[in-house]
Amino acid sequence: MAIRGGDDAESVRERPASGGADPSTHQLRLFLTLAEELHFGRAAARLFITQPAFSQQIRSLERRLGLQLIDRTSRAVELTPAGRALLPRARAVTEAMAELRREAEARSRAVAERIVIGTLSAEPAMPHTHAILDELNKRQPGLTVEIRSLNFVNQYDALASGEVDAAFLRPPAPPGIQVLQLAEEPRVVCLPAEDPLAGEAEVRLDQLSGRPMVTMPPESPKEWRDYWAINPRPDGSPLHFGPLAVDVEGVLHAVSRRQAIGILPASARTFYPRPGIVYRDLTDAPSCTMALAWFAKNRDRADIALLRNIAHSVVHNTALQEETTALQEETPD
């Protein structure tokens, strides 16, 4: 005769043996549902799982506890004395876990109200950086924005590791990092004030032949190192490298000590004036770009998507303003 609860009589009469493993909250929730329904089929349907799978989980729970919780007879499913005794405890555990999940989710949302943005060198002072952060504050006034300084070594690793959520950096970026170009500017050579080329208004790359370049850290991407050293040179002249620098201050120190020269963005003139060094235009050096960067796998994360959208709008508005200014300058009085 089939048992109403769906288990065969011989297996359910066996006394469970303790398996030593703790019961899962999932199993406890199944037990609570069965205690309410007192029917395997209805309890399984209520939780949208099959009856055999439901029965298997209840048997596993009994084995883990070393107790028979359910008295399965040919007429009904009932709780054993042990089942009735453990019912309040099972309910307390599942309620505590539910509260834990709610608290964790609340904390997660609180964490999501904070974004860490990395910056390299003078990027925090750039107009586009201010415009993007101002707009971010307008759209998300409750968002805490932490600015974290990066250097030549950790600028891209910090994105991949999650140390920062996004960053204002100088491409080229290695694989796995996506960028949105924000602005472009020329590059300059940074020379000791006593260098013979310091008296020139403009310098060509071939005039730098033989002068040692500041060495970029080997931990940084090779493509990035070569780009900033302009290696290889257009005329094929070999490069000589001097002391290592992990940030702009290190570059400036090596130059001021007359140990090497460095190639930097033109904005270094404004943000890094130093005694003993001069900046000269490089007439034949490719320009450099400023960009917002993020780890490719985080592209569609809500905070990154918002930051990207804001950066897009800032770049678009800046381009429109520049175009309008150019048209006004071309319009005859």
Automatic annotation (TrEMBL):
Domain HTH lysR-type: residue ranges: 23-80
A Pfam family reported for this protein in Swiss-Prot or TrEMBL: LysR_substrate
Keywords in alphabetical order: DNA-binding, Transcription, Transcription regulation
Coiled coil: none
Comp. bias intervals (Basic and acidic residues): 1-16
PANTHER family named among the record's database cross-references: HCA OPERON TRANSCRIPTIONAL ACTIVATOR HCAR (PTHR30346:SF0), TRANSCRIPTIONAL DUAL REGULATOR HCAR-RELATED (PTHR30346)
Region annotated Disordered, chain positions: 1-24
Protein name: LysR substrate-binding domain-containing protein
Keyword Repeat: no
CDD domains linked to this entry: PBP2_LTTR_aromatics_like
Domain of life: Bacteria
Assigned protein family: Belongs to the LysR transcriptional regulatory family.
InterPro entries named in the record: LysR_HTH_N, LysR_subst-bd, WH-like_DNA-bd_sf, WH_DNA-bd_sf
